[in-house]
Design a protein that fits this description.
Elements: E1 7-12, E2 19-24, E3 32-34, H1 36-40, H2 48-70, E4 77-89, E5 92-105, H3 111-124, H4 126-130, E6 134-142
Parallel strand pairs: 5-6
Antiparallel strand pairs: 1-2, 2-3, 4-5
Helix pairs in contact: 2-3
Length: about 140
């Protein structure tokens, strides 16, 4: 199986005074603005790291659902927040880590089975495997 997904970026101007637009082939993003202040100065709007966080949270949640199913469990709810850390390093700004906060309601799941599945999803989801960063997780089974 080979899948390809496309997104594009258009940028005009210098780093600090320029402006960009992000679009996805699906149309989920359509000329969504982004700029330096949104990325480095907490201005309202999105940035590449936020989009990576969304991709990781979504990918991980789907991977966990799949692994739970392979272990005869079905979640009533999986809630994941990914926090992407961008730090200045000698090489320049670098994504150094991602932290996943997971809360899941899985009827009949034991803590041991839940943690095994969550760790397998953390290691195996395609976005986790893509990122060259430390990936940590806090996982909570809700009953």
């Amino acid at each position: 199986m080979i899948m390809e997904s496309k997104a594009s970026a258009h940028w005009q101007g210098g780093l600090k005074d320029g402006k960009g637009k992000l679009s996805t082939e699906s149309g989920a993003l359509k000329e969504t603005p982004y700029e330096f202040s949104m990325r480095f100065e907490d201005a309202e709007g999105t940035n590449p790291e936020e989009l990576i966080a969304a991709a990781h949270a979504g990918c991980f949640s789907m991977a966990l659902s799949n692994i739970l199913g392979q272990n005869d469990m079905t979640a009533e709810a999986i809630d994941t927040t990914a926090t992407v850390t961008l730090e200045k390093t000698d090489a320049g700004p670098t994504i150094t880590k991602v932290h996943l906060d997971l809360s899941a309601k899985i009827p009949g799941a034991t803590e041991e089975a839940f943690n095994k599945c969550a760790n397998e999803a953390k290691a195996g989801c395609p976005v986790s495997r893509l990122l060259n960063a430390e990936i940590s997780m806090d996982a909570k089974l809700v009953n």
